[in-house]
Design goal:
alpha/beta; 5-stranded parallel sheet; 5 strands; globular
Length: about 110
Amino acid sequence: MKKFKIIPVIFEYDYGNEKRGGSLEQVSLLPAFNTMFAQVKPFWLEKNGIWGDPDLFNQKLLGFIEQEQPDLIYFCLMKNEVDPVILEKLKEKYLTINWFGDDQWRFED
C-alpha cells in the first residue's frame, strides 16, 4: 500500500473546535496513514468551510480531489457533512471509504 495516495477528509480539531485540541483523526489516524501510504493529503473539514455555504464547500472538496487524483478517499463523517450527490460522483471514479465511529444515537440520522 506504500505506493497509494490517500486523501483523508477529516476534522483537524476535536469536533472542529480548535480549543478542544487535535481530533482523534489528526492525532492518531494521520500518523498511521503516514506509515502506510506514500502520500497523505488531508482535506480539513473546518478549514475548508464545513459550516459555511454547503455548495461552496462541496465544490472545494471536489476540486481538491480532482487536483490530487488520489487512489483512496477516506471520510470520517458524523452526519451529512458532504452532499450525497458529491459522494456518488466521487465513488464512480475513486475508491471511497467512510468510517463512522460516532455515537449510536446518530444512527437514525
